[in-house]
Write a sequence for this structure.
């Protein structure tokens, strides 16, 4: 039986990197793809970034593959007008996607592309686990002519759920697992609750895993000064948004990083898989977008969404092989086009 995948090309370079990804997947198994407009493209077509029809289709899918959303065309400070990013928030909430996983492992072939020295990033292999459906992004919002507010709120249940995901991921990754829980407990009441709940869960269910608590500003500094210090980082929504993008730059290009968003009431609902980078409207239509993060996001879908671990490993190996033989797109300091990058990965897959 074919795996049913909803595809959301989105905006900017989104359609350009999604198309070769579907070709790649078709070489690996039996897939059925159902495409829907999303983000800015959906605003143009339907007046909203996420339609009820698209959300319903995503709920019925085995997995959702998203390329990119956003662009200056839809930028606005008017709270009454739709924004592409509202589609992302609505999709996360509608699918119950509470855990975002971002692996960060600089590849040896790209060590020299990193803004940090080789000796600083060599051997880095970390995972950022970000809480996705709570915190300041989803809290009550107010706006007047002279003031505005965004409420940051977390429940014990939300904190425990994401912490359990992080501890379980650490167990699978290493024989000496460590979880770094990032907060701002010296200032924020939500962070004090966060630290309390994570500590209690650790002692109750995961006492064999090393746990440390790190203030978010210290974590930001350590990510660039000593990234090998981290194994699994778990943190709340806004901190995770910022730190995961910072960590992405260790690889030399945000165009190299995939992500997985998992959830559902019992953790088994359809996941959302997408590259970390944005829609890059400045290079859209030029055929030079780096498709590798999209390929690696498909690999995360194969592994975490569909249970196809060997197929996922094949994609990851093909990407690494292409880079080892010299593939470089413009964001990596080379001149390879999207088509040339795709061909290099496909040849390594074979």
């Amino acid at each position: 039986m074919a795996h049913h995948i909803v595809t959301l090309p989105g905006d900017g370079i989104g359609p350009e990197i999604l198309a070769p990804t579907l070709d790649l997947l078709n070489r690996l198994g039996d897939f059925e793809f159902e495409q829907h407009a999303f983000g800015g493209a959906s605003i143009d077509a339907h007046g909203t970034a996420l339609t009820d029809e698209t959300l319903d289709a995503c709920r019925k899918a085995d997995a959702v593959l998203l390329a990119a959303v956003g662009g200056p065309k839809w930028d606005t400070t008017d709270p009454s007008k739709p924004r592409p990013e509202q589609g992302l928030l609505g999709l996360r909430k509608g699918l119950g996607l509470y855990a975002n996983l971002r692996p960060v492992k600089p590849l040896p072939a790209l060590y020299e592309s990193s803004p940090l020295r080789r000796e600083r990033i060599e051997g880095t292999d970390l995972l950022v686990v970000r809480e996705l459906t709570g915190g300041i992004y989803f809290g009550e919002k107010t706006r007047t002519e002279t003031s505005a507010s965004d409420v940051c709120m977390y429940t014990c249940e939300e904190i425990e759920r994401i912490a359990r995901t992080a501890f379980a991921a650490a167990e699978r990754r290493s024989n000496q697992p460590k979880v770094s829980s990032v907060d701002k407990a010296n200032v924020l009441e939500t962070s004090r609750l966060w630290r309390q709940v994570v500590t209690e869960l650790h002692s109750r269910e995961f006492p064999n895993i090393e746990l440390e608590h790190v203030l978010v500003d210290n974590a930001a500094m350590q990510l660039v000064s000593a990234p090998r210090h981290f194994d699994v980082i778990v943190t709340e929504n806004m901190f995770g948004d910022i730190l995961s993008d910072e960590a992405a730059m260790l690889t030399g290009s945000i165009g190299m990083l995939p992500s997985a968003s998992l959830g559902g009431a019992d953790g088994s609902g359809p996941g959302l898989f997408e590259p970390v980078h944005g829609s890059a409207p400045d290079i859209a239509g030029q055929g030079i977008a780096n498709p590798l993060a999209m390929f690696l996001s498909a690999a995360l879908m194969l592994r975490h969404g569909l249970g196809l671990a060997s197929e996922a490993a094949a994609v990851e190996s093909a990407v690494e092989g292409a880079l080892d033989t010299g593939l470089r797109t413009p964001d990596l300091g080379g001149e390879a086009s999207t088509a040339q990058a795709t061909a290099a990965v496909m040849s390594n897959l074979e």
